[in-house]
């Protein structure tokens, strides 16, 4: 990493307005200074990723982030290293890292600095970021590809699916969500299992034929949308349920809306088809 000409200048984040942090106990990780940045931190990044968090005692969020990463570092048993920069005491380092906000994160991989964080993250979000960092580093020959640990409920669900036991698989994912309500993989797994259960043994050709004959039959139309999604026909499925939403009210409209949201959960939320359908859903409801 080449440092900018103004390396010795102080970074000015005096406008920072956040709750003061409790830093009576030492923070985990290496404290970065102008002396060890190039002599120690950068060389270490040639063997494993070095995650550097810029913080200040004026921000409790930044301190909490470092402590959370400290737990991850210990769990990962040496796969990567944690370091931190107190911008109030090490302004030249903060200037070199081009700190713009707090907390601010940079990862060094093979001597190259890659910014990766400019705002506080939840524990699950932060865990995902660390996993991605390890994967990117491994692709560049630094460290090893991370092996993602599965949850016991997920293992139970997958084993049940191998036996075609959708009921047990669904119950397992629901247990996982009760324990970790924001687990995106559990939400996706549950939606997939429920779709598999609803379409198991269904005569797809007959369902689609019945849907043509009975365009206003809510149950048949919802079932047909399930079949279409299973077959990869996302847009026809979304359009089918959106058409119903336009003409229904009350409880019937809610039934269709809930199913549509379940189908959305099966697809990448950045998919243009989902984005378009979500906009149409909002227009239909509001």
UniProtKB/TrEMBL annotation:
Protein name listed in UniProt: Unannotated protein
Q: Which SUPFAM superfamilies match?
A: Thioredoxin-like, TPR-like
One Pfam family, please name it. Answer: TPR_19
The cross-references to InterPro entries, in alphabetical order and at most eight, read:
Thioredoxin-like_sf, TPR-like_helical_dom_sf
Query: What is the organism field in this record?
Result: freshwater metagenome
């Amino acid at each position: 990493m080449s440092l900018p000409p103004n390396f010795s200048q102080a970074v000015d984040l005096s406008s920072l307005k956040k709750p003061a942090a409790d830093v009576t106990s030492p923070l985990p990780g290496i404290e970065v200074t102008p002396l060890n940045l190039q002599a120690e931190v950068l060389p270490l990044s040639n063997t494993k990723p070095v995650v550097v968090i810029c913080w200040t005692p004026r921000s409790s969020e930044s301190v909490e982030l470092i402590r959370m990463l400290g737990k991850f570092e210990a769990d990962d048993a040496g796969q990567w290293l944690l370091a931190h920069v107190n911008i109030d005491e090490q302004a030249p380092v903060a200037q070199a890292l081009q700190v713009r906000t707090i907390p601010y994160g940079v990862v060094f991989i093979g001597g190259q600095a890659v910014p990766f964080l400019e705002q506080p993250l939840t524990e699950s979000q932060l865990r995902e970021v660390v996993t991605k960092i390890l994967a990117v580093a491994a692709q560049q020959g630094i460290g090893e590809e991370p092996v993602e640990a599965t949850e016991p409920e997920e293992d139970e669900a997958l084993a049940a699916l191998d036996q075609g036991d959708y009921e047990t698989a669904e119950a397992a994912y629901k247990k996982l969500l009760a324990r970790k309500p924001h687990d995106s993989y559990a939400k996706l797994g549950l939606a997939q299992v429920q779709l598999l259960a609803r379409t198991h043994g269904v005569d797809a050709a007959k369902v689609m034929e019945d849907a043509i004959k009975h365009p206003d039959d809510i149950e048949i139309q919802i079932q047909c949308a399930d079949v279409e999604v299973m077959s990869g026909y996302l847009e026809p499925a979304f359009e089918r349920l959106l058409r119903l939403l336009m003409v229904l009210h009350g409880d019937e409209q809610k039934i269709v809306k809930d199913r549509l949201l379940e189908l959305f959960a099966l697809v990448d939320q950045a998919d243009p088809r989902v984005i378009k359908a979500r906009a149409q859903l909002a227009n239909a409801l509001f």
